[in-house]
Amino acid sequence: MNTPVMIVVVLVGVGAFFGIVLAMANKKFAMEANPLIEEVEDILPKGQCGACGYAGCAKYAEAVVEDPAVPPNLCVPGKAAVAQKVAELTGKRAEATEPKYAFLKCRGTKTAALVTAEYEGVPDCAAAKLILGGPKGCKFGCIGFGNCVKACPFGALSMGADGLPVVAKDICTGCGKCVQTCPQSIIALESFEAPVEVACSSHDKGAVARKLCKNACIGCGMCMRNCAHGAIKLEKNLAVVDAEICRECTEAACLAKCPTKAIGDIVNIHAMAKTA
């Protein structure tokens, strides 16, 4: 028998031997999977968003089944319905959680925000931010290349004609993927019950902010002074609303006083985002 044939025979023999050994070891040391884990995973939305704190739905299913300390309501996209099903399967109690959705704290549209540079690189917000903070004059606002849209596992975001992402509240699960992806940190998870919000993130002083964006908060304090409940304060030239206090208000006098309409009721802010 010549040398090449001998080499092939030896390699095949060695491969077969180790294959048999591995098969026997796998059979002997195999661990039976808990069928309940698969049942729990089947009812999860499969967004693999990680909002539960685990690396995907399978890992959360494993943890909630095998660890008594892991609550059944950590699946943010699944909301109360999924939490209740997980609770029933695992024999745990599902505490109520408040549903939230993604809210863009910027109204720096193509017509409102001043563009000070032309960007010709990769259409990516993080990449554009590396070059002088992006093409817009306001370095706090939305850069507009849709990283958040691409990151959303549920298709709840889309780029509007005005150059800003639009959130479909009826689809958004509040998983937070867009929040993690945005290099500007201008997307927040907002309660569906929050009546008033500031759609701006600029900390520039009034005159500068207004020059760079017509829709910017200029830190004038008019909303704060007209809030009878003390729900609004100024932080670094930007109005900030305390949603918990704001819920108790029925007058919303702050809305009429804002000269740039940077603060508004949630419904109108979303309407402006879709039609601007």
- The class by helix and strand makeup works out as alpha+beta
User: Within the CATH hierarchy, at the fold level, what is the topology of the largest domain?
Assistant: Alpha-Beta Plaits
How does CATH name the architecture of the largest domain? 2-Layer Sandwich
Spans of at least 5 consecutive residues with low confidence: none
At the first level of CATH, what is the class of the largest domain? Alpha Beta
Tally of separate domains: 2
**Rg over CA atoms:** 26 Å
Distance between the termini: 82 Å
What's the β-strand tally? 8
Number of helices: 12
What is the helical fraction, as a range of percent? 25-40%
The average pLDDT score comes to 89
Strand content: 5-15%
Q: Strand order within the widest sheet? A: 1-4
Envelope shape: flat
The oligomeric state of the chains shown is single chain
Element order: H for helix, E for strand: HHHHEHHEEHEEHHEEHHEH
Q: How is the main sheet built? A: 2 strands, antiparallel
Describe this protein with a few key phrases.
276 residues, alpha+beta, 3-methyladenine DNA Glycosylase II, Chain A, domain 3, Alpha-Beta Plaits, 2 domains, two-stranded antiparallel sheet, 12 helices
Please give a structural write-up.
It is a single chain. By secondary structure, the chain is α+β, with helices and mostly antiparallel strands. It has 2 domains: 35-90, 3-methyladenine DNA Glycosylase II, Chain A, domain 3; 100-275, Alpha-Beta Plaits (2-Layer Sandwich), CATH 3.30.70.20. It has helices spanning 3-29, 35-43, 57-66, 79-90, 125-129, 147-151, 177-181, 206-212, 222-225, 243-246, 253-257, 266-275, and strands at residues 100-104, 157-159, 165-167, 187-191, 196-198, 232-235, 238-241, 263-265. Helix 2 (35-43) packs antiparallel against helix 4 (79-90).
